[in-house]
Amino acid sequence: MSKFFPKLLLILAAFLAGSFFSRYRASTQVASRVSPTSSPVSVAQINQLKIQVLPPQGFTFDIAWGDLGQRLVKIGVIDRAKFDKLFAGQPDLVKKYLDGSDETSITITADSAQFWVDLLWAAGLAQKSPVLDSGPMQASGDPGRFASTGGWTLGKKSAMTYYSQSQLIPLTPDQHERVKSIAENIYRPCCGNSTAFPDCNHGMAALGLVELMVSQGASDDQIYRTILAFNSFWFPQTYLELGYHFSKSGTSWDRVDPKLALGKSFSSGPGYSAVKRQIGTVPGLNDAGGGGCGV
């Protein structure tokens, strides 16, 4: 027996070593799946991504605003004195879109992002809409309890005085149905709801913008691309990180399908959180901030 004992020890040692390395490899593979890591990225790449997602000059769209601002003030959903006070540092912008009657384009930048949230919020809130009258906002029986209604303090009266009361944007029944269909595909990272459930300011603002663009005959792609630009300036941190995610997958931000990016898998709160877990912390993308759901 002593003749075979050394060989037996060698076989046993080899078996134990193989078992150890097998367990080590398996545990390493599991860790790589659950631990978010980011590949090194250069400062130049980060800067290029920021320029694509949040260009300093912003985005300009051929959307006729006309005298909609005047009409929002006239019906009282916007109290001009409150708006002037809130945007005292941007008097030219306020004058242009609340006093003007022939504006044919809209530009959103980092500086004007909050202005457009509030102005479009007023439009979405007051516009007569089946989305507001028979959609998820009515499910609880009290649409006045949401942030998009109870949080609106820039009118002359309470928000529910104006809720879905005015034909500000002319839409046919078919166009209203199209608004609903598009809105159901647009999400925002502050919650898990689509624009068809506009329970916060960004959702109500996006609804108003969709209604305005549908009334002017914009294509679905144009609408999704426009909302993606607005969402990007409303939630800059989120969309920089989504842009990074797509770029690591081989798709530059300017080639991303806007409908896909705005969908539940990416732009909803849970969708974005899942992406965030995948990419982890990316140096240089942690200081962009994001929008709140109030005035």
Structural features, described:
By secondary structure, the chain is mainly α. It folds into 2 domains: 1-35; 43-279, no CATH class. Helices cover 55% and strands 2% of the residues. It is built from 15 helices and 2 strands. Strands 1-2 form a two-stranded antiparallel ribbon. The relative contact order is 0.13.
Question: Summarize this, please?
Answer:
The chain has 295 residues and is mostly helical. The chain has helices at residues 5-34, 43-53, 68-75, 80-86, 91-99, 113-126, 130-134, 147-150, 173-183, 201-215, 220-234, 236-248, 258-262, 264-267, 269-279, and strands spanning 59-61, 106-108.
SSE string, helices as H and strands as E: HHEHHHEHHHHHHHHHH
Overall radius of gyration: 26 Å
Mean pLDDT reading: 88
Write down the overall geometry.
Answer: globular
Strand content: under 5%
Question: Could you tell me how far the N terminus lies from the C terminus, measured between alpha carbons in angstroms?
Answer: 87 Å
Low-pLDDT parts are 1-6, 8-17, 19-38
Topology summary:
Blueprint: H1 5-34, H2 43-53, E1 59-61, H3 68-75, H4 80-86, H5 91-99, E2 106-108, H6 113-126, H7 130-134, H8 147-150, H9 173-183, H10 201-215, H11 220-234, H12 236-248, H13 258-262, H14 264-267, H15 269-279
Antiparallel strand pairs: 1-2
Please describe the structure with a list of short key phrases separated by commas or semicolons.
295 residues, 2 domains, two-stranded antiparallel ribbon, 15 helices, globular, disordered N terminus, signal
